[in-house]
Structure formats: structure tokens, C-alpha cells
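In this supplementary section we document a worked example of the pipeline. Step one takes a protein sequence of length 664 as its only input; no multiple sequence alignment statistics are reported here. Step two produces a three-dimensional model, which step three serialises into C-alpha cells for compact storage. The input and output of this example are shown verbatim.
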Amino acid sequence: MWRRRIPIAAIIAVIFALSTAYVAWALKDLPDPNSGLAAGDIIILDRNGQVIEDYSPAGHYHVNLTLDQMGKYAPAAVIAAEDRNFYHHGAIDLQATARAVWVDLTSGGLNQGGSTITQQLVKIQLLTPEKSLPRKVHEMVLAIGLEQRFSKDQILTMYLNRVYFGHGAYGIGAAARTYFNKDAKDLSPAQAAFLAGVIQAPSAYDPVLHYSNAKARQEYVLRGMVTTSALSQSEAGTASAEDIQKELHIGVSARQSKAPHFVDFVLTQLESMFGSAAVQQGGLVVHTTLDLNLQALAQQAVAQGVRDLHWANVNNGALLAADPKSGEVLAWVGSADYSNDSIGGQFDVVTAERQPGSSFKPYVYEAALRDHKITLATVLKDELTNFNGYTPHDFDNVSMGMIPARKALLFSRNIPAVQVAQMEGMNNVIDLAHQMGINSKLDPGLATAIGGSDVTLLEHVQGYQVFADQGQRVNLSWINSVDDSQGNVVYQRPGTDTKDVLTPAESYLITDVLRHYQYQWGFGWNRQMASKTGTSDNGHGQIPDSWVMAYNPDIVIGTWVGNTAPNGGGGHILAFGESVGSSLLRYFVNGLPNKMRDWYSTPTGITHGCGGSELFLVGTEHMCPSPSPSPSPSASPSALPSVVPTPSILPSPSPLPSPQPSPT
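The serialised model returned by step three reads:
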């Protein structure tokens, strides 16, 4: 070793010089606490490269405050939420870091937290979304340098002025104004804890969309404030009981967006992919699947449809459209007016759970057709029936007697649908619905057969996508790729995720019934679609929700209307699903590009049987109806002609029909 002392000393000198140069380079961009810190833009592009929204701090609300101006509770709440030992450790919390490293090593990923407030300030102000060991080392070096240059109070001030709270509010000063219309120093302990809880994931804890999650997070912060002696146990109990939801008065920021609900959803996905710190820092370009031309059409259709249905007490609507072959979302309208607080416009109905009514019935019939429990010719009883204590009713309280399954679905009769569900077994129906994309919990009771369990519009469109793509499930997608501020691709959507749920023949039977629906109920569409309405019932004969689902090989669409109010309230409406199809969805369908007019050819596995023109799955053509159905009433339940026109004869658009009874 002594003989090698000169080369060893040289190597050490080189290492020291390189380390010094690295630290000097790393620390050159440390923030200045005396100047306002700003996040980078997140630019959201549509499928053609057009800007949907430049999610920029310039279009948001940013207020710089001193620590004294932030009041007593806000800094204490943020410390309790993010770093309870902030004033008692250095730039790095070694115990928390060791725990995080252990979890990452044992889980095989870089997922665990453990960052101090100093490290978080570094993340959101200086670093890229990359998750790697070198980046973690870089973060630690910067954090140490930050604490050597600035005091703890200065670092906390920078963080509180810079961190994003959602709804366009950067910093605690802007957040206090945006959420509660007051100065930060005037926040109550409950309000301060609520805001501090949002920081971890502003989209996931958005109180407009996920109030229960945000409230649970507030409880966590309040417990932390007791631990750090910022509050007594009794003060925390008083704060927990405070009605925060009633106090919220969220102001709309100055952001300009061509698809605000879609952008909000994409930001939630970015938080899941990269962590909230990466989204807080910005500097991302997101290439999405949205088509701004179809988005504009959808927004116009929803706005005009809601105006048309004002007579029915409708004040809100939503629409989601996707390409059934690729699963790419093309249009996303979460409410009729994002800026309208009177309808809770910022709440995204696309992701809200609501009862789908009769639009759920195709899953029921498909399950029974697939399992050969029925055919479209099977005779069902449309008469008041007690199904082991459950007695469903139809909207018109009229009996159509014995009718074939095709007519029962086309006329959207409730009692036959429940009969089919009982024949098939609700567990089988639920299993198929889940396979097709319904992720919400479905109650195994027979009421689910006619839409008695909640689903979201997002997952309902996923379910109908399977029908639209002839039995193949293609998972819906919304982000194609993400670039960082240097133009490096940090995310690329993998290949299309597909699964065969139904055979083309099995899905074709439902499609062949639903292609007649637009004529039976007079929608006035200018192209062939398969469609199904849904109207929910609150159990007292009142309507909370009306839906229409529609598809052809080029597009799958779901739309909803209702009456909403701030904080999740709302009234009832008078519009059945048919009114939605002939107004809101008519505007959208008739405005679609001419190229979206494709239709299905009859697949293999379909045959005719029983000496008639009815379609059967091969192997079921011998399942002929007995007894023969009784003559049907002379008119359909909506007083429209009972004869279904030939689908190839497309009716031209007609004036909107006057309100009349419609299918459920």
C-alpha cells in the first residue's frame, strides 16, 4: 500500500474533485426563498397533437405568504400530514428512509415514501418524474444542500408557498381562498387539516369527486396534530366533528380547458403512474387518445340536450365515447357545465356510480343466450309475477302477455328480464357483467337484472364495448405516451389489452335486437346503431337517472342525464331514456363523421330455426317456443308503431317528439 501511495492518493483526489464538482453542479439550481416558486406546465394533447389544456400555473391561483401570514394551524397541519419530525431531523429522515428502502427491496419496486418536507420540495421544484436509484441519490444531495443553505422555517415557507392543493391552487394562501374563501391565517384546525390532507394526491383526494377519501385523510392529519402537540385530543375531536363539506366553497380557477373533466382524470392517472410530486413539478407533455373534434361535438350535444330537456327538470348530462376496436377514449364530458356550481359542475358523472336502469338488461339476456338457457324465440311471461318475494313492475303497469325474448328486450319489459335472470342465475349474470367490464359491486338480488345496482358510465361503456367489438374486450385507454421536459419518453402505453369474452355469434344476437331500438322508440338518428335506454327508479316512482347506450363497429357511446346540485344533492326528472335518445344523443350521433357508418355482417355460428326467420346460435335452433306467444297489443308501450322498420331504411332526422311514456 505504501509503495502505491501516490496512485492511491491520485485516485482519492480525483474522486474528491469529481464529488465536489457533482455537488456544486447539483446545488446550482437551489430555489430562492425570496422569489415565488412556480411549477412547470403539464401540456395535455389530443390524438392529433392539438392542445386540450396547457395545465400551467399561469392559469391558476398562486399567493406568496410569509410563515407568520399562514397562521397557526396550516403549517402545523402540513407538518402532521407530511413530516411529523421535520424540526427534529436533518434533510433526510434516516429511519423513514431505511424503512422505505426495505419495503422497496422486498417489493421489487420504488414505491415506498419516506421523504422529508425538504426532499419533497426538491422533488416538486427541481427533479424529473424518473424513479431510479441515481435520482434518489441526487435528491438526497440536493436536500442536504438545501438545509445547509436555508433554515427550517425558510424551507417550510417555500414548501407551503409552492405545493399544489388541487383546483388550481398553488400554496396555502391560494388554497385557503379557493376552498374556503378566507385567508390562511383564519383557517380553523379542521380546515387546515383538510387542506393538508389533500397534498399527498390532489386528484385522488379531490373533495368534489372523492369527499369520503378526503375526509378520511383529514382524520389522519388531525391524529398527527395531536401526536405533534399542535392540538389537544378534545380540540381534534371538535375539528373532526366540524361540517367541512358544508363549508366548502370551491372557486373555479382561471384555467382554460377544452375537456376539463378528462384532464382532471388524466392528472389522477399521472399521480398513480409517477407520484404526486412529479405532477406537482410539471414539465410533462401528455399525448392522449381524445379527439377534440368529437369532444366539441359531445359538449355541444350535452349542452343542447340538457336545454331541450329542461321541461323534464333535467339540469345536467354526461357523455363518454370510445373506439371499440382500440379501446381509445374519443370524447369525455363529465357535466353539462364545468363552471356551474349550482349543478356541482366540477363533479365528473362519468366516474360516478348511478343506477343504469334497463340499460343493464343486455348483460342479462346475453348470459342466458350464451349458456343456452333461452333463445330469442323463447316465450316469456309479461304478467305481474312474484319472484320469491320480489314483484317487479313496468313503467306502464300494462301486461303484454306471452311474448318472445326478442320483443321483451326490444320493448324493454321488466318482468321478462327478471324471469330470464332467474332462469340463468344472478351469479352467472354478474360474472358475465364483470368479465365485460363492470367493476362495481353488483347485488345478487333480482333487482340488479333491471338496473338496481350502481355502475359508472365509464365501466358501462367498457361493457358495451364488448358488444361493439363482437365479443372481444379491449380495455379502455386514455394516455398514449408521456414525455418529460427534455422530450424523453417516460411512459409509452403497451400494446392493446384484449380478451375474448363472447364469441362473435353470441354478441351478434344482442346487436341484432338492439339495432331495431332506435326505430321502435323514434330516435331520429341518421345512421344505424345498436342502442338501449335505461331509466332508474328510486322505489317511489321517481326518476333520478336516464341513460342511453349506443354502438356500431366504429364507436361506442354512453350518455346520462339527471338533476344535480352542489355537494352531491339533486332532484328527480321526468325524462325517460327515450327522451335522451331523441335529443342529446341524437345531436351527437347525427353529427358524427360520415365514415362512422360501418355495420356488422352475420358471423359464423348463427343460423335460422324453428321454421321461421329468427336467429339462433348453432346448436339451439331446436329450442322452439311452446306455447306460441299470444297476440301482442296493437301499440307499443310508448304508443309508437309496433312494426319494426327494415334497418337498412334509415329515417331522416325529425323534430323532437313531445314528452311521452318510454322504456325503462
